[in-house]
Amino acid sequence: MKGKSLNAYKTLELAAMVSIVLTEPIASKNVSVLELVALGRQPYTNWIGTLTQKDKSKILEALNVLELIELQHKKCYELSDGQLQRALIARALAQETTLMLLDEPTSHLDLYHKVQILKLLKSIAHKTQTTVLFTSHEIEMAIQLCDKILILGKGENHFGDPCELIEQKAFEKLFPTDTVTFDARSGSFRIEK
Amino acid sequence: MLCFGLNISLGSVSIPFSATVKSLLGYPVQNDSWNYIIWNYRVPKAFTALLVGSGLSLSGLLMQTLFRNPLAGPFVLGISSGASLGAALLIMGISLFPGLMAFGFVNDVSLAIAASLGSFLVLLIVMVVALRVKDTLALLIIGLMFGSITAAIVSVLSYFSDAEKLQQYIYWSFGSVGNLSWAQLLLLFGILLIGIILSIASIKSLNALLLGEKYAQSLGINMKKYRYSIIVAAGLLAGGVTAFAGPIAFIGLAVPHLTRQIFNTTDHKVLLPAVLVYGGILMLLCDTVAQVPNSASVLPINAITSILGAPVVIWLLVRKRKMIF
């Protein structure tokens, strides 16, 4: 990153540059949303983790962006999957990094919450100075919402604007054509009957 | 403070509460032997109970956070059995190897060192296994297995050792907060202080660990370093206490849960001091019950902590329906 190998960075330096949201559940579901988001400020706090005024305003900002103000005192085990995912993203946002990595942020959510999460991610990417990079199986939604897509295929990996990729017919090769085909005009997949 | 006073005023020799308070405050009391009993027996015992309760509870809190398991504690993960093994090897093992007699003699310092070494050994093995086994439930079972192994070694040792040594070990394993001199008390305090300082230094990483090790790493926590400092702290706390007071059950498991219920937070900045205070208080209460006020007999403290501790854990589970840490 920035011309330097990742291993050359100290753990703490990296923490100020990259934040993550994993698919694995957090170890303790007994933390409240506020406590969870506040943990995102750890790279900047002193040895015992005292929150400064600046930390508090960043936490509040992250809660605001992800519409969690009303939920801030709820424990994580009381939240729905979508709410918990938003809380985890808020934590990553509070970490104030240039790069936010998310591993399948929309898996096991219903359509509405998938779209909600992805739209929030898009607005974070556009409003703050954060690069949001996530893995996903939701190709159709990614085409509609993402600025750039990297397709991890067999052998060749295409990268570019969704529209460019459609023109390059990059999506057609993803799946066996006897099961699903890609419709370039609507940007979606059709099931072969 | 009240528990402290209560604990001191009750014992096999009946001393009026007013006299206890007077003696503690330095006023002369009617009976000189009361004064002696209070200052040389009951006050050290009350302080020991405080330290033992605090140390075990903090150790339990560290283990629960580190292993991300609500059932973790000094007893369950075999740390206490490790300490027992160390003590047993020292008390009973030495007579089996006459050559070692020259180096090792059973006194409180060597007993403390042996028990601490034993608990460290087991903790390190559990930790190495923990790196390979991702499933924490499996880890608990492994901890229990270590308990069985150490129990087996202890029974082999007991089979070969003479009655006097055996009795010495059995009495140690009953657990007791009495019989500590001021000097021993100071030593225990020193050991626990190191453990507490290490824990305080790890507060931030403990909080990050609530999310799991990967998240903690991504928050800039040097997990390798802190994992070991947390283990060393837990080992010192549990090992030190077990060495001086014997393997005391349940306090380490139950107090962190009680504290989380009362304070309704997971922040270790709050939990750490709270656990120390509650552990101390609970242990004082257990000791007060154990000495059966105004009677000559003293029950094994271990029995009391289990009788009081186990229902608490059951009650928590039934009330919350699940055990969240």
Automatic annotation (TrEMBL), chain B:
Its main location: membrane. The keyword Transmembrane applies. It comes from the Bacteria. It is found in: Cell membrane. One of its GO terms (molecular function) is transmembrane transporter activity. One of its GO terms (cellular component) is plasma membrane. It is a multi-pass membrane protein. InterPro entries: ABC_BtuC-like, ABC_transptr_permease_BtuC. It holds the Pfam family FecCD. Keywords: Cell membrane, Membrane, Transmembrane, Transmembrane helix, Transport. One of its GO terms (biological process) is siderophore-iron import into cell. The chain crosses the membrane at residues 6-25, 46-67, 73-97, 109-131, 137-160, 180-203, 228-258, 270-292, 298-318. The keyword tRNA processing does not apply. Belongs to the binding-protein-dependent transport system permease family. FecCD subfamily. PANTHER family: FERRIC ENTEROBACTIN TRANSPORT SYSTEM PERMEASE PROTEIN (PTHR30472), TRANSPORT SYSTEM PERMEASE PROTEIN (PTHR30472:SF41). This is Iron ABC transporter permease.
